[in-house]
């Protein structure tokens, strides 16, 4: 068993590197296992079709970005395959209906997984995830007890979607308290819309328009009332360096929103960030036109009293 907490520092770094390589290979292997599980009759085609639709829904409703604490491709693949295996030989429409019904009602205290592994070494455990998440809190150890309690809710085990194969990994690791609320809201809204669509009396064209409008979603800036605009602007002299710097800024957004915005502004219920909204005020374009610019919109959802 590889234990990175023991041995000389150089050995610990080597073990970390080996474990990282193992997890990367496990991610690749999990895709093969998922395909093997559904490559029966026409289930593979159903899986591909349902996955494409679900990913389009997630992207257009701004909950598809693992770095920001939302779904990624691996998470949606597992969620879809779980339903394809449960309702094999079902129609695509029925699978979509069951997808949103199942996960809008899912008790997230329970894991979503495809199989039970006998080999547990290096696989996901509750204790390991709590330890990893608490690592993010170490530099905030000087904060008050009240603030620590508030922060802790973001780093509890909130959503577990285990990739098949060994070692198991939680592909929903980045989901936090705020993003989970947004995901659940979108699941509930989708499920309600689909249930209402079943009672539609219109014709084929009306049915098609309903699905198209629902999948296309609403523009991000029309979903909410209050926003932050995060700008990264760098000289165009070295484009590669500018892109790398803005990628670093993007990698910090999820945690900084928790530590710098939600923690200090208790009137904010949650924040919702996206890189998919391309709208940029003309004043910004004029002022920073000579720079490499990347931007992100952040919605501020206020608490209701």
From TrEMBL:
This is polynucleotide adenylyltransferase. It catalyses: RNA(n) + ATP = RNA(n)-3'-adenine ribonucleotide + diphosphate. The keyword S-adenosyl-L-methionine does not apply. One of its GO terms (biological process) is mRNA processing. Its main location: nucleus. Belongs to the poly(A) polymerase family. One of its GO terms (cellular component) is nucleus. Keywords: ATP-binding, mRNA processing, Nucleotide-binding, Nucleus, Transferase. Residues 47-204 form the Poly(A) polymerase central domain. Its EC number is 2.7.7.19. One of its GO terms (molecular function) is RNA binding. Pfam families: PAP_central (PF04928). It is found in: Nucleus. It is an enzyme of class 2 (transferase). The keyword Ligase does not apply. The lineage of its organism: Eukaryota, Metazoa, Ecdysozoa, Nematoda, Chromadorea.
């Amino acid at each position: 068993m590889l234990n990175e907490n023991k041995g000389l520092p150089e050995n610990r770094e080597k073990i970390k590197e080996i474990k990282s390589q193992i997890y990367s290979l496990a991610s690749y292997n999990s895709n093969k296992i998922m395909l093997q599980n559904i490559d029966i009759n026409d289930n593979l085609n159903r899986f591909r079709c349902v996955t494409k639709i679900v990913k389009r829904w997630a992207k257009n409703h701004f909950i598809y970005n693992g770095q920001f604490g939302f779904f990624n491709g691996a998470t949606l693949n597992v969620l879809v395959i779980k339903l394809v295996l449960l309702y094999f030989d079902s129609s695509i429409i029925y699978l979509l209906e069951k997808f949103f019904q199942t996960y809008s009602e899912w008790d997230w205290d329970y894991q979503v997984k495809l199989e039970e592994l006998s080999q547990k070494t290096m696989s996901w455990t509750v204790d390991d995830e709590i330890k990893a998440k608490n690592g993010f809190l170490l530099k905030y150890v000087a904060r008050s007890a009240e603030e620590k309690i508030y922060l802790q809710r973001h780093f509890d085990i909130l959503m577990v979607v285990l990739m098949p194969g060994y070692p198991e990994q939680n592909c929903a690791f980045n989901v936090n308290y705020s993003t989970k609320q947004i995901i659940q809201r979108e699941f509930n809204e989708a499920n309600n819309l689909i249930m209402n669509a079943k009672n539609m009396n219109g014709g084929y064209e009306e049915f098609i328009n309903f699905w198209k409008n629902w999948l296309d979603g609403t523009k991000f800036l029309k979903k909410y009332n209050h926003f932050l605009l995060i700008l990264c602007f760098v000289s165009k002299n070295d484009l590669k360096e500018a892109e790398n710097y803005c990628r670093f800024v993007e990698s910090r957004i999820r945690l900084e929103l928790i530590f710098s915005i939600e923690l200090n502004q208790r009137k904010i219920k949650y924040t919702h960030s996206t890189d998919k909204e391309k709208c940029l005020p003309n004043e910004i374009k004029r002022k920073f036109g000579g720079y490499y610019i990347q931007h992100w919109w952040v919605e501020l959802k206020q608490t209701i009293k």
